[in-house]
Amino acid sequence: MITREQQQAAQKQAAEMIRQAGITITDAEADSIEVVDFGLSNLEKEGVQVLTLVQTERISVKVLAMLPNQTEPEHWHPPVDDDPGKEETIRVITGTVYFYVAGEDTFEEGFIVEGKDDCYIARKEIVMRPGDQLTLAPGKKHWFQAREEGAVMYSFSTIARDALDQFTDPDIVRITKVGVE
Ligand code: ZN
């Protein structure tokens, strides 16, 4: 759970980062930025801010803004009915992103969130800088982490069904609760 104040502060910070990255967004879009804590109540460490630009029955375009040193938890996009699962391309606009996929362990630059070794199994490290992009096949485990300056990325994909994404960390709930304080 996050508080309404936390949600608004993260939205504001994400909107500023997105605009500084040269992506023009309306105030209504800035207000629609989804602040996701994955049910872990530890937003600054594990979370992501998501602006959805396009969401149809077939495709999805999102801007992901990550706060300094924030980590998006390990997850994968499972098959749904006759759809093999979301195919996703991530393109970095600003910041350096450490991206991790299943494969040979080359973990070196990033860090594992304290006490969460079992929740981050994919350790093949890909260092991504502005202009770099990669395409993830459906079902492939991945997680990523921003550096001190935070990061802004595009996510282009087939239809996103975020609520059906699966996570390595059993404590994760994809829908973020916003509490009243
Ligand atoms: Zn993903």
Structural features, described:
- The protein has a single domain (2-179), classed as Jelly Rolls, CATH 2.60.120.10.
- It has helices at 4-20, 27-31; strands spanning 2-3, 34-36, 48-55, 59-66, 71-76, 88-94, 97-101, 124-128, 133-136, 142-146, 151-158, 166-167, 178-179.
- A hairpin with a 3-residue loop joins strand 3 (48-55) and strand 4.
- With 181 residues, the protein is mainly beta.
- The strands form three sheets. It has a six-stranded antiparallel β-sheet with strand order 2-3-4-11-6-9. A five-stranded antiparallel β-sheet has the order 8-7-10-5-12, with no helix packed on it.
- The structure holds zinc ion.
Q: What is the CATH topology? A: Jelly Rolls
Q: What sequence of helices (H) and strands (E) makes up the elements?
A: EHHEEEEEEEEEEEE
Provide a count of the helices: 2
CATH class: Mainly Beta
Q: Separation of termini? A: 11 Å
Q: Cα-atom Rg, whole angstroms?
A: 15 Å
Q: Biggest sheet, open or closed, and with what strands and sense?
A: 6 strands, antiparallel
| Residue runs with pLDDT of under 50 for 5 or more positions | none
Level of helix content?
A: 10-25%
Shape: globular
Mean pLDDT: 95
In the CATH hierarchy, the architecture is Sandwich
- Number of individual domains: 1
Number of strands: 13
The main sheet orders its strands as 2-3-4-11-6-9
Strand content: 35-45%
